[in-house]
TrEMBL record:
Reaction(s) catalysed (UniProt annotation): S-(hydroxymethyl)glutathione + NADP(+) = S-formylglutathione + NADPH + H(+); S-(hydroxymethyl)glutathione + NAD(+) = S-formylglutathione + NADH + H(+); a secondary alcohol + NAD(+) = a ketone + NADH + H(+); a primary alcohol + NAD(+) = an aldehyde + NADH + H(+)
GO biological process per UniProt: formaldehyde catabolic process
Molecular function GO labels: alcohol dehydrogenase (NAD+) activity; S-(hydroxymethyl)glutathione dehydrogenase [NAD(P)+] activity; zinc ion binding
PROSITE patterns: ADH_ZINC (PS00059)
Residues in Enoyl reductase (ER) domain copies: 14-370
This enzyme's EC code(s): 1.1.1.1, 1.1.1.284
Named cofactor requirement(s): Zn(2+)
Family of this protein: Belongs to the zinc-containing alcohol dehydrogenase family. Class-III subfamily.
Classification via Pfam families: ADH_N, ADH_zinc_N
Protein name: S-(hydroxymethyl)glutathione dehydrogenase
InterPro entries in UniProt: ADH-like_C, ADH-like_N, ADH_3, ADH_Zn_CS, ER, GroES-like_sf, NAD(P)-bd_dom_sf
């Protein structure tokens, strides 16, 4: 099995262009690497962010996708904890277990992964992929829009043998991100009042997290009122569409909650919305968490917002240490303590990836699952 595999992948040759189905070559796994047959993958807005918003030329050509699940095809020298046939989720945050971040319980960052130096282009300069004689970058170290991918063992979670891969793939990014932002980062408290801005998969997962933590009121905020029906399924109690208001949303939330919410989660990745979320919090103890991924603009707020007792913080992958957290989340889903199926609105084969991108661009889906390889 230790030979080059030729397979199909959706290649992003350049920014702002449709992805192209190509035959690529996938190298055998090197030391401490695992070659994975990808069975299913979600499409996340961060894939679109790289393609249409940040548009850094040095980040192309690439295979996007970072919300996948699959089966170990082969392992490289030195890999002892994985074997062919294991069900796995590739992780865009590694957990080496040895760096200063891994050893500190306060964070889920890790020094060893792609992200340490190259946040701007969102990939490592090393890759296992070639196509037409060119190196193809592995987006976020994962590249799940390919039938096969190669990932270092520090960025792979081994999961339950009977986990349905076309559902649990969502725990590779969006659902863990939103859910953890509420339970781990915000630390939502029983009986509290919460607001969630942005009701994509991440926002809906944040709503689910607020409910799991025992919030008594969860206000869902989105400029697309079509999202409110879905938010109700996950536990939202109130709904606000900022485009239908005559005054700032923070003012309306303050009136609804006698001075502001206890917790506000920004799940869009828009610096204006970040400010609104902060200003929607009560003074004294309000906590606002940035969850949406973006690194293009500065945010701003008046110092008095923090001086009077609000806290402003951020969350990456929901604060879960990746290799530890993901298998536990899969188990929670298997025990029906965590919803995943309700996030899935569309399913299609990988070669329809551009249709999935259009659906997301126009807010017509929550999550589209792309079937990549049969199990």
């Amino acid at each position: 099995s230790q030979s080059v595999i030729k397979c199909r992948a959706a290649v992003a040759w350049e920014p702002n262009k449709p992805l192209v189905m190509e035959e690529i070559e996938v190298a055998p796994p090197g030391a401490h690497e695992i070659r994975i047959k990808v069975v299913a993958t979600g499409l996340c807005h961060t894939d679109l962010y790289h393609l249409f918003e940040s548009k850094k030329k040095e980040g192309f050509p690439a295979v996007l996708g970072h919300e996948g699940a699959g089966i170990v095809e082969s392992v490289g020298p030195g890999v002892t904890k994985f074997k062919p046939g294991d069900k796995v989720i590739p992780l865009f945050i590694s957990q080496c277990g040895e760096c200063k971040f891994c050893r500190n319980p306060k964070t889920n960052l890790c020094e060893k992964g792609w992200s340490n130096e190259r946040y701007d282009v969102m990939s490592d300069d090393m890759s296992s992929f070639t196509c037409k004689g060119k190196t193809i970058l592995q987006f976020m170290g994962t590249s799940t829009f390919s039938e096969y991918t190669v990932v270092n063992e520090i960025a792979v979670a081994k999961i339950h043998d009977s986990a349905p891969l076309d559902k649990v793939c969502l725990l590779g990014c969006g659902i863990s991100t939103g859910y953890g932002a509420a339970v781990n980062t915000a630390k939502v408290e029983p009986g509290s009042t919460c607001a969630v801005f942005g009701l994509g998969a991440v926002g809906l997962a944040a709503v689910m997290g607020c409910k799991a933590a025992g919030a008594s009121r969860i206000i869902a905020v989105d400029i697309n009122s079509d999202k409110f029906e879905k938010a109700k399924v996950f536990g939202a109690t109130d709904f606000v569409n900022p485009t239908e208001l005559s005054k700032p949303v923070s003012q309306v939330l303050a009136e609804m909650t006698n001075g502001g919410v206890d917790f506000a989660l920004e799940c869009v990745g828009n610096v204006g919305v970040m400010r609104s979320a902060l200003e929607s919090c009560t003074k004294g103890w309000g906590v606002s968490v940035l969850v949406g991924w973006t690194d293009m603009y500065d945010f701003s707020a008046r110092p008095i917002q923090l001086i009077t007792g609000r806290t402003w913080k951020g969350s990456l992958f929901g604060g879960f240490k990746s290799k530890d957290g993901v298998p536990k989340l899969v188990d929670e889903y298997m025990a029906q303590k965590l919803k995943l199926d309700d996030f899935i609105t569309h399913t299609m084969p990988l070669h329809q990836i551009n249709d999935a991108i259009e659906l997301m661009k126009h807010g017509k889906c929550i999550r589209t699952i792309l079937n990549v390889c049969p199990e």
